[in-house]
Amino acid sequence: MERGPRFTSSQLKRSRASLGTTPGPHSRGAKKGVHMLRLGLSERSRSGFLRSRGSAAVRLTATTAALALGLTACGSGGDDSSSGDTVTITLEGPNQWSESGSSFGKPWEDLVASFQKAEPNIKVKTVVLPLNSFAQTISTHLAAGTAPELVFSQVPHKPHMVHALDEYLAKPNPYIRSGPGSEKWADAFRKRYYGLENPALRNAEGKLEFVPFNLAGTGLFYNKEAFDKAGVTGPFKTFEDFIDGCAKLKGAGYTPLAMDRSDLGPDWTMTAISGMLLDKHVDRLNVYTADGKPGKATSATGEPVVTNKSLAKAVLSGDLTPKTPEAVESLKLLKKVWDSCVDKQWSGNTEGLNGAVVGLRDFAAGKAGMAWGVNFGVTSLQDVKFDFASMPFPQITKESTPLANGAPARFGAGVGGTNYMIPSTVKGKKLEAAVKFLQFVSSPENVQPWLKATGGIPAVEGASGADETKMFAEGSWGEPVPLVMPIGPPGVTRLSLVDGWLLGTKSLPEQQRYLQDLWIKGQRQAVKDGTWGNEPWAK
Q1: For residue 233, what are the contacts with CB-CB under 8 A and spacing of at least 6?
Q2: Regarding beta strands 150-152 and 122-129, do their DSSP bridges make them parallel or antiparallel, or are they unpaired?
Q3: Do 464 and 366 contact (CB within 8 A), yes or no?
Q4: Does the predicted model carry a pTM greater than 0.70?
Q5: Which of 474, 504, 519 is the last residue before a domain boundary?
Q6: Is residue 124 one of the residues assigned to a domain?
Q7: Tens digits of per-residue pLDDT, 149-165?
Q8: Can you give the CATH number for the domain in which 468 is found?
């Protein structure tokens, strides 16, 4: 496995919108007429993934930048650069797995080699773009008509700039001999996350324009050796089991839950907790569809969700405040996790901040029993000297609080990992070759070795992915969170929402007043971004 996952493609921008729904036309930050890809992940679950490892983005070589700038000359879809019967296609995107500025790593090279062996008349070139500029580079290439044959999908663009893939997805995948996908390519994918029947994934013209190579998921990694020494059995079933496990791990000399001074640990823990406790308010607050019309919204899996617009109405109308009992209880249980499971010096840990494993320094060193992470985190942990596995955050039951209503722990997995699309300027044999590559990587047999090597969660039926991360997308945990605690306006970090409360420098009334002010400001901005100012509750 290649070392050092950088981020999932969901990291493209930190969402500041409603939590627990897929971003649609009214998502904050979307520009009129410009399509920002709708993901199957909940908004909050994607929020932290944009963080790259430390300052690695600025350490990429000048050679990489030169490659990106020079791509106009060598990678344009209009350039039918082929030799005889050989067709060469170019794929450009950011490196999600290592700090290399020239390669996506050996597992990727092996995948490409496997494709070229199956299709000896097609050659695939990979252009690695700098993390701090890939979105701008790809967007510029798409707008200018100079993009290569395959581009990383999650960048600002308009639907006409890329090929709709619906027609191809309705036909057989030639690399799947039998089973799902052999008659209709779309059937190869896990319908819970991707398919022709999933409206949340369509662009502004109602088309599917990308193919996922994997899924992105979040959860808890745990050190099996630490659990054995502490007499703890994972995964935990309930929140109280989790708190008891923290006490045992602490007694065995471990920091129960690794933490650092990034947004991710507090944000993801609050997502899991508040997603369960606020569940009872979903039906009451779910008053606008994904298109912003009066009605009920549902997720990609058909479950009710509170959209950005519904959340704005709830906060600005006073239907959801930091004094709502379940919001108060969410704050209290978050504090209980910090007091019971997190090292007292957590706020001073700024070493190795990354978007793959929270508290990587302590967890990788074997000092901590658990750590929040994403599936790409497997490659950051390839050299650890202990076995590890994954698990979801446990369910909150009435044993912990009478306000629990039996809602399961959810976080949301989805097509927020590695997705690629074909620019509309690509024609003829190059278009055929690009489609073939997408079909090849969405066949279970061909993609399986790459998934195993990179900690990938399969997007297709019949592939098992990596054992260490399979729990990140299983069961109810893989479902989107329908409603979690609101956030503040742009510029306010997720950590700053709760650090005073967790450090003990804010009392509960002070925390409530602080959050109320930020929630109102955040939703006022959402109204502006969504152009909902004419709604009675927004005035």
Answers
A1: 227
A2: unpaired
A3: no
A4: yes
A5: 474
A6: yes
A7: 999 998 999 999 999 99
A8: 3.40.190.10
